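Task card 7
Instruction: Convert sequence to structure tokens.
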Amino acid sequence: MLSRFKQMPLERQLFISFVSVSSILLLVTMGIMLYVDITRQLRSMDDTIRSSAAYIAQLDGVEAMLERGYPDPEVSRQLDSLSENVKDLNVIVIYNTSGLRFYHTDRQQSGETFVEGEEVPILEGSEPYITTGYSTYGSQRRAFHAVENDQGEIIGFVMTSIFTSDIWEQNRVIVIYALVILGVVLLLGVGLSRGIVALLRGSLKGHHPTELLELYLKQEDVLNAIEDGLVATDREGRVIFSNQAAQRLLGASQQELEGRQLEETFPQSGCVQAARTGQASHNRSCVIGERQVLASEVPIRGEEGLDGVLSVLHDKTEMMRLSDQLSGTRNMLDTLRFFNHEFMNKLHVILGYLQTGETGKAISFIVNSGLVSSQAIRETADCIRASRLCALVIGKMMHAAELGIRLTVAPDSSCRPEDLLLEEQECITVVGNLLENAVEELSKAEEELREITLGLYCRPDCNIIVCEDTGRGIDPAVRERIFEKGVSTKGEGRGLGLPLVRQIVERHGGTIDIVTEAGAGTCFTLTFTRQEGAV
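Output:
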């Protein structure tokens, strides 16, 4: 039976389920109501015959009639009137202690004795009670009450009764009414069930419920099979759904994410801004822990407006690793070509010194050129993946080495083209001017330690450029004006590099910090951060 039910269409299952549940609830409710009503009806009838018997037993005429030993017509009229007015009262009888009947609603019964034995307890002084007995009229519900004289002696008893057939007749009416109500309510339940099913069918816009059910059951597998992270949020940025890829990226389960603000686990999320503006954003470079991701926020619009935002998180860490390998190989090839070109130029210089007999200069040139090792070049290429910027730095290293200056790149530097917040040409301009100023400064210094350290720290949200030298420091007289055009300690016609650097920094909303000490050197720190709303 259950298997046949499962094979039915979903609409029919819903209809049968609604009707069955409604029917069970109605049957239980009607059963309880019938039990309560019938019990109340029986209790009411018992109260009627009990109170009637007590009333009759207290009548003065009844006591006098039993004392005299013969029926009293006036008492009979009173009891006839009582029997007519109390519709639920079928029989009233009065007996003396000898069982002789003094009154009966049926006059033909007067004078007969009561021989059924149910009167014995009441004649022996029992409290009033009710029994179920049988007579020529069938089964009856009887109430017994003692009649006492002024001395408190029992001189007889009163019995009032209702025919059981009358009781069941009244209960039958209650049952019929209940069944009619049950039928009407069942019909209403069937109609409402059909209406609910029709309403559901309409809300599904023509789609069969079974199709939607199968689609719902499959969607979790489909969404979890997608490699990109998917996070659905409401208009306030609270997580509604996330697939397994998103949970892995965010380091939390669906239960931990659901109902929480997405920005708590992903601070760089733009879902709230997308919900506020209604504008989608695509492929924003972000960082989640140690993972590099591309984040896109797409507003979800319903019939009544914006419902929420779908965030798509594409993990590009593995792609970046492969790209780094390819970029590193390409940079190394470019570096080797450049190194070969520079090496040939150096050989020509050495050859010229030897041919002119300037052996000392040749020796000095060879020693200084050795300051740039192939390992330093490889390390530079590994740190700086922007090809033209890397070539610039290596060129400056070669040029500095010729002047006896050691130029190195900080080993913890990291610079990828996709992480640059400046155009690569602008970055080349900034770094080139900073290094050129440092090289010129150290070329004139007389200190034995002449070193320049370049640090490039690039993340999708922040770029930091640090250039530190061991020169003489900046003259306090020109320190406040070094970014003005034409201001320089190198002579006339100079002082153009740092103003150009400042223009680029201001254009991108960056900052420049300078730390300098006379005789110890100077450190320039340039900081650029991604502006809110930038893609």
